[in-house]
Amino acid sequence: MSIAVIGTGYVGLVSGTCFAEMGFDVTCIDKDQTKISRLKKAQIPIYEPGLKELVKKNIAADRLSFTDNLKTGVKGAKTIFIAVGTPTNEIDGSADLSYVFAAAREIAEHIENDSVVVIKSTVPLGTGRKMKEIIAKANPRLKFHTVSNPEFLREGRAVKDFLQPDRVIIGVDSEKSRAAMQRLYQSMINENIPVIFTDIETAELTKYAANAFLATKIAFINEMADLCDKSGANIDDVSLGLGLDPRIGKDYLKTGPGFGGSCFPKDTLALRKIAFDLGAQSEIVESVIAANDKRKLAMAEKIIKANSDSGGGGVKGKTIAALGLTFKADTDDIRASAALTIIPELVKNGAKVKAYDPQGMNNARKVLSGDIEWCDDVYQALEEADSAVIITEWQEFAEMDLAKVKSLLKKPLLVDLRNMFYPEDVKKAGLNYISLGREAVYSDARYQMSDVRKKKKL
Questions:
Q1: What is the mean pLDDT of the chain?
Q2: Is 28 a catalytic residue?
Q3: Which domains, from first to last, does the chain contain?
C-alpha cells in the first residue's frame, strides 16, 4: 500500500516515517522547499529521539521520500493523510482549520477514485464532515472516503508511541474506509494492540477528551502541591498514594510549573470553544485552563520570594540561572513552555537571566528578549549566578554535581520546579533547596524559615 502524508511537521514527519518503518511506501509532502530539501538529506527540523535514525534508514530502503509537488506526491497513493497544523485562533481560542481545508481543496483534483482521505491532525467535532463537503464540491466526480485517525504522540517518545501504541482510534464513514484502515494497522491488530473503530465525530472528540483529561490531572496535582506547601504534607507521597489506585493511575501526577507544548494548551482552549458553540458546559476545562495560566505566574513569584528570603529585594539586581527552556525534556519544543512566562517575569522584576537548555536554545532565542545571557552549558549558566532554578526536567540537570553547583553560585540557593532531587541530598551539598509541595531545606542559617517549617519545628 502506498501512502501520502501532507505536512512534515511534528505529526506528519513522525507518522510518515513510522508508516515507512512498518513497511509501507510513504511520500511526505510539504510546500516548504527548503525543509523538503533538508529532509531528503535526512536533516530533520525537530529534535525527537530515534526519529533521525528511522528517517535515514527508510530513505535508504527506498520506502520514504519527500516532495514539494502535491500532484506527484499523491499519485498512486490510495491512502492520503492530512497532518498539517491546527494552531489556536488567537481571537476565540478555536482550532484554526485553514490548513486542513486548504489541503483538502488541493488534493481534490489529484487523488484517485476510491482513495481514503485521513485526518491525522487534531481537529474539532464536525471537521471530517466539513472536509468531505469541501472535497466533493471541488471535484464532484470524485468517489472517495474519509477517516479520522487522531494521533496520541508524546513529544520525546513519539516514535515508540506510534510503533507501540496503547490504542489506535479510527473513525470511518464506510466499510471501504474501514477495510483500508484495517489493512494499514493489521500488524498492530495481530499484536493485540486495541484498534478501535468508531464514527468520525467520536474519534475527533476522543482526542480532545484524552488531552483535556491529562491536563486536568496535571492541574489537580499542582493544586495538591500547593496544599502541601501550606500544610507541610509531602507531594511525592501524595502522588504515590494516588497513583497506586488503578482507577487513577500514576501517569501525569508529577507536580511541576504547569503544562505546555503543542497539545494541551491548544486542545483545552479548542475543547472549551467546541463546548461553547454546542451550548454544552465546560466548567472543568475552563478551570484547568485558568489554573494552568496562574500556575506559571505563581512559579515566577516563588522564585522571587525564595531570592527575597535569601537577603531581601527579590530578584532585582540579581543574576538567576534558568535551567531548561523547553516545555518538557527530550524535545526542542518551547511552545507554551513555563519558561516563556517565568523568564520574562524575572526580567521584568529586575533580574538578569543566564539561560541554558540542551535542545531548546535556538527556538528560545527567537521569542525571549531582555537581559538574558545565552549559555553553552549548565555550569556556565550557574557561574556567578545568585541562584538557580530548574524549569525543565532534563536528565542532564539531575546528573549535576551538586557540590560544583554550590561552588559556582554566589549564594547557595537552588529552586527546583521539577522536584528532581531528594532534599536531604541537596542539603548535604551545602545548598538551600526550594522545591514544590515538599518542605524546604536550608543549610544556610541566614535563610528565613517558612511559616510551615517554623510550626513543625515548634
A1: 95
A2: no
A3: 2-193 (3.40.50.720), 205-458 (3.40.50.720)
